[in-house]
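Late entry, written up from scratch paper. The run itself happened at the end of the previous shift, but nothing got recorded in the book at the time, so transcribing now.
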Amino acid sequence: MLCEPCATAGQMRAYFLFLCVCVCVCVCVCVAESCTEGDSFIVGFHVPDEALKFAEELQMALMEQDWPEELLASPLAATVWATVSATK
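Output as recorded:
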């Protein structure tokens, strides 16, 4: 997990609770079936469009959060740029 190298136990708990809230809200919005096992989420959808909506909702929810500076300063959190080249 990205935050493990730079986080205290308290920060990890806070991060996990924050992540749980984001996932649970998105599960409710998308009417998905879900459960947890340990620190993992199991989410099921009735149709592919629901899975896509969930993925979009979760990405937006995570993107809109105020992430801790020590987490953002990690090289593991750096922006990754890629280009797609045409193959012949």
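Residues 9-29 form the longest helix (21 residues).
(Scratch paper discarded after transcription.)
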